[in-house]
Amino acid sequence: MKMTLLLFFAFTGLLVYGQEPATRAIKLTPLKSETSVKPIQAEPADSLAGLTVEHCETVIAAIDSKVAYIKSDQTQNEKAIASGWYTLMERNRAAWIADRDELLRRKAQQK
């Protein structure tokens, strides 16, 4: 008897509260833009903001360490040569050196 009542109330609850149909539809209308309003132009972000010379030196040292590790393992070295990984690392290293040099130049100008 208890099981029958439990099933009855569960079934009734699902019928009454389960997936009630939407009572109203929301109609979206596009916003009209005014031609006299110009979009705000954000100033270009400084690509070196937040970087320090020490951080650049750390990344350059990490790249050098990773290259030395890959060169020490014959199979990894062959994979790196085949995929052009050394070229990519040299490009990354050059970019970090350029960033470090720019930071040093800015620091010298501030003095």
Descriptive report:
This protein is mostly helical and 111 residues long. It has a domain at 53-110. Helix content is 65%, strand content 0%.
| Poorly predicted runs | none
How large a portion of the residues is in β-strands, by DSSP E?
A: under 5%
Radius of gyration: 32 Å
Total strands = 0
How many separate helices? 4
**CA-to-CA gap between the ends?**
90 Å
Q: Helix- and strand-based class?
A: mainly alpha
Mean of all residue-level pLDDT scores: 83
Write the layout of secondary structure elements.
Blueprint: H1 2-17, H2 53-72, H3 74-83, H4 85-110
Brief rundown of the structure:
It contains four helices and no strands.
Task: Offer a few descriptive terms.
111 residues, mainly alpha, 4 helices
